[in-house]
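Model it.
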Amino acid sequence: MKKTLGAAALAVAALTLTACSGGTEPVETSTSAAPSTPQETEAPLEQFTVRVAALPIAETGALWAAIDEGIFEKHGITIEILPSQGGAQAIPALLSGDIDFAIGQPFGPFRADGQDLGIVIIGDYADSLASGKDVNAVVALDSSGINGPADLAGKKVSVNTVGAAGDLTIMQAVKDA
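Modeled.
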């Protein structure tokens, strides 16, 4: 069974589950003379738990806001957030079934797809129109002697996930220097 990747799938799941959850047709439950409202007579929603690997960062803000606003709960979905260091780190959890979705950068899923591991990329969760040289940065103390990518050769650099975007771009920048 293929695993899916992306916050967009959560929204699709919510809409799909809503469509399958019994609709708004009143269910006759009483012979009372008082008219009942659809809210009183709707069949209860089937409850689902969806486990998502996500970082608490700006790009996942819509997910956190939807949870806080009760949008998923309204549709019978409980979201269980499992902390993640990034998309590449979440791939083993996806493959083992420990999580249902992962939100992260695409390098890990692209590599998994290249190995035909059954990862499906649903869509992006954030669009960035950032431009220029300082979109991402590697920082070091003034006293470190590191002034550019070439100075990183042979040094240890901290990244959130080995094999993720930051790691790969730093290695390439050092190689190109």
